[in-house]
Amino acid sequence: IKELCAVLFILCSPFIKDFDFTYSNQEEFARGIAECTVSINAYLPPHMRVVTVISVAQAALESSWGESRFAREGYNFYGIIETDNTEPHIKSLGSNILLKKYGRRCESTADYINVLNRGTHFTEYREMRIKQSITNTVNIDALISTLIPYAKDPFYTFKVRDTVSYLLKHYPDIFLDA
Questions:
Q1: Which phi and psi (to 5°) does residue 31 adopt?
Q2: Are 132 and 140 in contact, with CB atoms under 8 Å apart?
Q3: What does residue 81 show for φ and ψ, rounded to 5 degrees?
Q4: What does pTM read for this prediction?
Q5: How many Å apart are CA 78 and CA 151, to the nearest integer?
Q6: HSE-up of 144 (CA within 13 Å, CB side)?
Q7: What is the pLDDT of residues 59-96, one digit of tens each?
Q8: Residues 6 or more apart from 130 whose CB is under 8 A from it?
Q9: Under 8 Å between Cβ of 2 and 146
Q10: Within 10 A of 33 (CB to CB), how many other CB atoms are there?
Q11: Exposure class string for 66-84: b at 16+ Cβ within 10 A, else e
């Protein structure tokens, strides 16, 4: 129940309602997603936090660095699907898939963290994260390997790893304190 309360607190917190960021290039996008992730993580117990560089890498991949239609029109940076057509959504072109539409950019990051913390497909991810939290270690590759269910692409985890490497090489200062 503590975890549910933490998630509800984050989604209802003034930070999420009031914070937003803008971007016009990859670095600004990465910095904005990183700031959202770090700020949301601050409200969570350690075993529920996500690794900032993985969050940014997935947002970059899922939204083409914030340039996809879903990112521009609905601030959906993680490809999060909406199952209730009465909720705000954007319909994909050429299919009946609905993607969630958010009012602010950080709401997408909060929902992404919630999906990882509550989604039935991410039990292995949560178990790995708890083990790492207990031992006070972070093994990014091990965590990424548990994200196979996030996308249908069989090469998804390889793409996440490559994007993490790119981010750490090109924008290392973003992740120094994250």
A1: -65, -40
A2: no
A3: -85, 145
A4: 0.89
A5: 10
A6: 21
A7: 999 999 999 999 999 999 999 999 999 999 999 888 88
A8: 47
A9: no
A10: 30
A11: bebebbeebbbbbbbebee
